[in-house]
Design a protein that fits this description.
With 387 residues, the protein is α/β, with parallel strands linked by helices. The chain has 15 helices and 17 strands. It has a single domain (30-168, 226-376), classed as Rossmann fold, CATH 3.40.50.12710. The protein has a 7-stranded mixed β-sheet, with helices on both faces. Helix 5 packs parallel to helix 7 (120-137) and helix 9 (227-239) packs parallel to helix 11 (294-303).
Length: 387
Amino acid sequence: MLSEIISQKISENSQGRISFAEYMELVLYHPEQGYYATNKVNIGADGDFVTSPHLCKDFGELLAVQFAQMWEVLGKPACFQLVEMGAGQGLLAADVLKFLHKHHFDFFECLEYLIVEKAAGLIAEQKQILDKLSSNFGAKIRWCGWDEIEENSITGCFFSNELVDALPVHLVAVENQKLREVYVSFEGGDFTEVVGDVSTPAIEDYFKFVGVDICGYEDGYRTEVNLAGLEWMKLVGSRLCRGYVLTIDYGYTAERFYHPRRNEGTLQCYFKHSHHNDPYVNVGFQDITAHVDFTALEKQGFLCGLDKVGFVQQGLFLMALGLGERIAALSFVGEVEDIGNVLRRREVLHSLMNPMGLGNFGVLVQCKSLNESEINVGLKGLMMPVM
């Protein structure tokens, strides 16, 4: 059992503890027992959680519109590489590729779709869906690891949807106006938390980096630090030669993320469509996430040669790409259309821009090696929709 593997890892540590980031890494990504590394991942209406691609194909189709414009802005290169990092079950990739094949065939012919995924269980599911696209439509799709992508080799776009929130985070707390770290121990058959000095100076440097000092906050204040997110952004920046990085996730700017009133952090667990904040139950059978600090990603990107193009809510991003027109078109369906289906579809489309849900997700767009005229073109998704 995964709990036994983790407890053994803890017992092997001289201090009898591991950082929460190590715990979260094992819970989610252990190669044999981790939540994402096996077929335990249950996404969809009957699963642990739902992502935008599970609601409708429109999410992927609207992203495809943006990718097609990116290709045009870059001068329609003969090979445009679209790199999806963390592709879930492959639904988003399928929606993007089908739409491009039908509506932007000239772009489709120049497109190579790369998937960076380390979860064997998810790769198997992705291939079940996407191998048909390769054989039926000639889509160029391949799976690869980071070590297979050379530095400065990608012309195109790196993108992710709800990936960074699942990267392992360190838990920290304020104690007597000092920054402390929350570790995981194992006593009496249960995982327990212990507080100690921070495991690495990088945690203190992180708060300086994003311009927030939490040491003056009240005792007991807890939050998360996503050092893995910084390393991920460094990887992306080093592999991109020319093009864009598109990151979609739930999160905030650092000022909002580390607000004094958000004193319990953002850590959440998802199990059978219920959410709670206890990461020590359902070990290996539930998802664990934390909101994204977009300020950190933006600043780290800049250090890696990435310029910020824009940061906007998902609802506005999709509206600018044509979501509003799709909703409006439902008002003109013929009499033969099932009104129940129309209402259900309208509800789904509205959920993509709901400011209390998916519509409040952040969309960060960064670019590399674009000249001033290319940047000035402006991306459709970042243009305010006309209401």
